[in-house]
Amino acid sequence: MSTPLSEMEKEVIDIFVRIAGVLSLPRSIGELYGLLFISPDPLCIDDCVRKLGISKGSTSQGLKILRSFAAVKPVYMPGDRRDFFTAEAELRKIVGGFVSEQVRPHLDNGKERVARIQLLLAEETPERKEFFAERIKRLEGWQKRANAVLPFALNFIKPD
Amino acid sequence: MSTPLSEMEKEVIDIFVRIAGVLSLPRSIGELYGLLFISPDPLCIDDCVRKLGISKGSTSQGLKILRSFAAVKPVYMPGDRRDFFTAEAELRKIVGGFVSEQVRPHLDNGKERVARIQLLLAEETPERKEFFAERIKRLEGWQKRANAVLPFALNFIKPD
DNA sequence: CACTTTGTTCAGTACTTTTTGAACAATCTG
DNA sequence: CAGATTGTTCAAAAAGTACTGAACAAAGTG
Fold it and tell me: Looking at residues B5-19, what average pLDDT do you find?
């Protein structure tokens, strides 16, 4: 029932499984992307299930998440009712999708949080206030810097 | 037995718990760093245990990890046998420690991995070889770019 | 040296996340 | 439309991760 993976496939998939780990994404998502990345032709859900030996449920959900930040794109196959997918190989598109999907929300949240803390500062005794004010200013600085590095880093990935 | 946290402490700790999540570090590590970050004076293990309501084991291990990338530094308190800690507030130092401790190893591993895959390329039929070669080259490019962005991003954090 | 204080370690437990698989919905096909 | 094919959803199970607490080690104290 299950097709064995070639050495090459295993190695490449392994790389993406590790990357998934770093990004705190499920293992299966790394497997799926890796498989599609190294597949000359688009694959359908059942191809993935057979090749990777994971369940159809995982595969369906995994591809959904990968599509959500455009790491994988659907390919129309004439005369075939099944959905086929290839890996998006342009790093810029993936990173862009991932950032706006998973990173930006955190940064935005942080910003309003720091704002809230600044209000709490008013209630402190003058003595402690000084220290707290310094720390909050520092937090704000980090915040700003994170927001500044992002677009820059994205831009660093220019050609593709 | 346990000291309640002030509003300010809660808010700040919350921020660092979120950051810990993003970096896939345990929640307790975020709590510890947050607490120390907003504490005017150095704290000992038992202070942390009482303030955060976590176990001594977690605290000990958490501080060990925080020390491993210099996010926290021991402070000598004359006449006190206990170990005290403050948060390292210089972003550059923390990020530097974190990178060389948790990021660099991944990048290095990736590099040798890509090298290994290139060897496997030899065993492919000319037809598939072309596609595989393109993909591997792409992987290599990402690799290189990641290695290039890092020092640059670190440098971006100049003043402190 | 017996006792106290402090920090570490680690097996077991609690919790969280991911995966499975079966039921379902949607769409196609003859 | 009845039956088949394909994809999705979600409750339950499995796997993975972090936390606890008690036992231990190390070092100080009287």
Answer: 96
